[in-house]
Amino acid sequence: MKQRVQSILFFLSAVAFGLLFFMPIASYLDVAGSYYKLFAYGVNTISLAEGVSLPFSGLYALPLLILTVAVLLINFYIAFSIFRAVKLNQFVQLFKLSRINMGIAVVLIATIFVYYLFNTGKPIAAAPSFQWPCWGAFLTLLGLLMMLVASTGLKKDIDKVRSVDRIR
Which of 8, 13, 40, 54 is positioned for an S-S bond with 146, CB 3.0–4.6 A? Predict the structure, then answer.
């Protein structure tokens, strides 16, 4: 079984989703010269022109934060639980949890690409920019890809164990 490779992939996926707290998802530059960065926890401004207030409330990115933390914690749980799993039933439960986690990650990615990237720029009249270091939106895709590869490997291991049990 390649449990170590799968746990490393789940761990790296968690790290990729964790980087959303440090690496901006997108950046925006409006006409007034204010520079906005969208993170998983909200929108930060670099410079605001005088007399301009931030058009986003503190709860603006709450769904993004909840989804990111959920995917992050489930990935860590799966990564560390694969080492402790001994019975086939435990692997099956981890596989089901990984599929649920991939569903949550797809919802997170859809939320980022469909809602946040375009609706964040509307009140400030700016388009999203993905120049370095604003590649956080693509880190989610990388994290989902790592989860998919690890989950597929976990499924192959489960099928191998079942075929060996059938021979006995």
Answer: 13
